[in-house]
Amino acid sequence: MDLSDIAKRLDLSDSKQVVRRAAELRRLCDIQFDSSVIGVGEVCKAVICLEIAATRAGVLFDRQKAVRLSGMSEKAYTRSFNSLQNGLGVKNKLDVRELAIQFGCVRIIPFVHKGLSLYKTRFLASLLPSRRAGADFTRPVFVSVAFYLCAKKHKLKVDKIKLIELSGTSEAEFSSVSVSMKDLCFDVYGTEKEKKDPKEIKGNRELLDVLPEKRKLEDGGYSSDEGSEPSMYKKRKTKDKQAYESWKKTVVASNKQTKAKVLVYWAYSGIYVLLESFEKYRLHTKKDEDEKNLVSKRTVVKGVLLQQTIQAVVAIILFTVTGDDGAAAGVKHSLIDLARQFVTAMLVLDTWQYFMHRYMHHNKFLYKHIHSQHHRLVVPYAFGALYNHPVEGLLLDTIGGALSFLLSGMSPRASIFFFSFATIKTVDDHCGLWLPGNLFHVLFRNNTAYHDVHHQLYGSKYNFSQPFFVMWDRILGTYMPYSLDKRTGGGFEVRPVKEVKEI
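The structure corresponding to this sequence follows.
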């Protein structure tokens, strides 16, 4: 593509002086070095030359349009711009006052001037008289470093990367000048307690060279002067690696949570299966369980496994999108914070499940085709707690769990304990056993007997609350009190203590 065509696309066709200057810079590039070595194509080279010419002429230049036209990312374009500018020996002019206004640090202007003057004096003192004439302090890197160090000393926030881009230098060169300036100007930047002899400071001589082409890597020059800037590339790769590690930790956390819920569910259910033979603690006889339930235990196991598989997939997606266990691992929450998160999650989960559960009973279509699957267990038992239609599992359990996780602000690691606790509570509510000393029966009004009322025909329009509190049933008039009486022949029987009315 011709340079004039590129200038036209960048709205620079009317600036003939800029186009001529850009053409000269482009020819100089072709003479001095092969631009392909630093990864710059012909179109990108022309765009960069136009930007350099426009900047030096004070003509307005659209950087975003230039980046799109070059076909590179913004970071890659900036690296190429700096490399090409260094290779051509074109210096940006940085004014301390303009930098101070741009970054909002006007009060450090005299300190920057003082530091630059002191650095120049002490730096020249370390050189042989024959080399002092070749020292070049007009390069913008000195101004940008002095400005950055003064801002840092005065505890002012300045974007280092932006300063590097404005000075047209590399990160390695910026760091090298920064070290030299801090060593020599101890009294301005406050980095040393005692003055150092300038002749003992290593690396000062490599700052002398006027043009980048005079600096060579083997002589202590900078890799950016030879072409590419691996430091910026490495920085980007490091950020990508950190993002990947954070994502990986999040997925691992979600997998741990899912595994914990599954293991807790079947382990706790297994305990109640072993205790089923104790008829004196059962709320229903074994005969009632076999006759009244409308589904086999084999089918229940298959349904629960399907439900847990769906929840595992959704949990991984949720934590991948929203979780950040890498950040959370570095933050230690107090016990008060964890307790607040647990209570919040419990309230959110209860609220969501109450209204969704009640709506599924009052909507005839949803009850017939979805929620009635759970009520095939008229006599509930432990491992049937999650026997639901997949749609119900998604609406009640998965979305309810996601909302409680997000709104409580708990970390994925903390959620492992919360959802394990919620799983144990849900299993206990469906176990069908009234065991002595059961803490859930002592601490929660919403317990095995309370939920058993809901599974009976007379209580299907009552006791919707699950799995922790009974507040919504009490507030909205769906609370059914009950009595727990001993059954002839052993065990207990749950009976309503008020007349059942159709809602």
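Residues 230-275 form the longest helix (46 residues).
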